[in-house]
Amino acid sequence: MSRPEHVISLQDVRRTYRMGTTDVHALAGVTVDFDYGDFWAIMGASGSGKSTMLNLLGCLDRPTSGQYQFEGQDVSQKDDDGLSEIRLQRIGFIFQSFNLIPQLSVRENIELPLYYQGISAVESAARAERLAERVGLQDRLHHRPAELSGGQQQRVAIARSLANDPRVLLADEPTGNLDSHTSEQIMRFLQELNQQGVTIIMVTHEADIAAFASARLHMRDGLIDNIDRGRHA
Q: Could you tell me the pTM of the whole model?
């Protein structure tokens, strides 16, 4: 079976929430395609719809109407189990707050998605060690998160997000808790991953961080305001 043209395709996607007696149109009709190997930054003011967009892309929520295709498969109407399977097997997540488990070592945190996939302990450990080396933390395998700097913790989170060999890496303000120097290091590393073929979609409110992406999607009032293509950093 040939690979579809787009890894993700949204067609007139809308997401409406009921707030008391008022309907809030978080997404008011979004149509956009994300291609394999892209690096996107989704930007916009608070309330513009960027977080709702990321939740839908990550199969953490589903559209009120419209079509969401992931690798040619319509996931708009999938049940919770179907969405969970896509998240587990095809999507990697990076969060602003790292979301590492403090009681687990670096290796154990990286292994966590593999545990839920039923991968053997031997294979999980080997894969975690390879990923730790990939992010430059091979000498920190047995450290716990509290023993690491913020930048190192985010590198562990990136390694964990790659454990399931995802089709798409979703990043939610990945440098929000980091100083400017460490933020640049993390973004340079994400650029390297993208150049190796990893598809990345990132939400950020910082223009200097968005400049590392090859395309920027600006949102306003639940709609795409404009798209700017061309890497700046």
A: 0.91
- Run of H or E residues at 192: helix 180-195
Nearest to 191 by CA among 166, 214, 168: 214
Distances in Å between the Cα of 216 and the Cα atoms of 62, 70, 201 are 23, 20, 10
**Residue 43 falls inside a structural domain:** yes
Residue 158 CB neighbour total at 10 angstroms: 25
Q: Report the DSSP beta bridge partners of residue 62.
A: none
The CATH number of whichever domain residue 89 belongs to comes to 3.40.50.300
Answer yes or no: is 5 within a domain: no
Q: Look up residue 229 and give its two tokens.
A: 């293509």
Residues 172-209: tens digit of each pLDDT = 999 988 999 999 999 999 999 999 999 999 999 999 99
> Contact, 203 vs 40, CB < 8 A?
no
Burial class (CB in 10 A: 0-12, 13-18, 19+), 223: middle
Whole-angstrom distance, CA of residue 214 vs CA of residue 231:
4
User: Two tokens at 191?
Assistant: 């650029």
The tokens describing 213, both together, are 């992406």
